[in-house]
Amino acid sequence: MSGHSKFANIKHKKEKNDAAKGKIFTKLGKELAVAVKEGGSADPANNSRLRDVIAKAKANNMPNDTIERNIKKADGDANAANYEHIIYEGYGPGGTAIIVETLTDNKNRTASNVKNAFTKGSGSVGTPGCVSFMFDKKGQIIIDKEEYEGDGDELMMLALDAGAEDFEEQEDSYEIVTAPEEFGQVRIALEEQGIPMAAAEVTMIPQTYVKLTDAKDIAGIQKTMDLLEDDDDVQDVYHNWEMEA
Predict the structure, then answer these.
(1) Residue 8 confidence (pLDDT) above 70
(2) Residues 174-186: b if buried by 16+ CB within 10 A, e if exposed
(3) Which tens digit of pLDDT belongs to each residue from 182-215?
(4) Measured between alpha carbons, how far is 95 from 210 in angstroms, rounded to an integer?
(5) pTM metric for this prediction
(6) Dihedrals phi, psi of 225, to nearest 5 degrees
(7) Burial class, 50, CB count within 10 angstroms (exposed 0-12 / middle 13-18 / buried 19+)
(8) How far apart are CA 27 and CA 143, in angstroms?
(9) How many CA atoms lie within 13 Å of 224's alpha carbon, on the beta-carbon side?
(10) How far apart are CA 196 and CA 215, in angstroms?
(11) Is the pLDDT of residue 71 over 90?
């Protein structure tokens, strides 16, 4: 499959984020708070999970002062809500597979909302593990060619030397894939060279993609995606729908 649609997914998310920065920043703030609490430190130098969430926040254009404010708030708030990390898996139209990662302080509310999102898009929530075997957990860094004017071969050598597993050049982007445990060091190597990243996070990458041609199926999965992305409890949505660029 052409990797072009991977960047189409990123651009789709960026457009959604630009239209609702407040909502995405709220979700990232929650993720920063959980990273501080579970990582045991508000210092990213001593908290690898926090470092990775900060990179994700920066890739989503969250200002540095907003990131720092969220970290300080989480570090100083002993009475902060305890969020539970729950993953839902299910099926969308046309045999598409969807994974939903949530952070919630009310799992009944979240379960109801997620089920509703699947149902309204003509899909269904499945059992744990029903589709996750169709994805690989990887570090993924996307570099937009419009934002990076350097040499592709040099970028590839930098990434591979830093520990990347794979480097792929697409029409409008470069994609760097790492093992989850190597993601941090590869991202840092790129940051140190001032290389802009359109996306930088540990994610679930589909092993194969499903192309939808029926307008009803496309409308259905788009409905599910919109409802999930608008839900404050939903942190990330992964799917194997091959979106058009």
Answers:
(1) no
(2) bbbbbeeebbbeb
(3) 998 999 999 999 999 988 989 999 999 999 999 9
(4) 8
(5) 0.83
(6) -60, -45
(7) buried
(8) 23
(9) 30
(10) 36
(11) yes
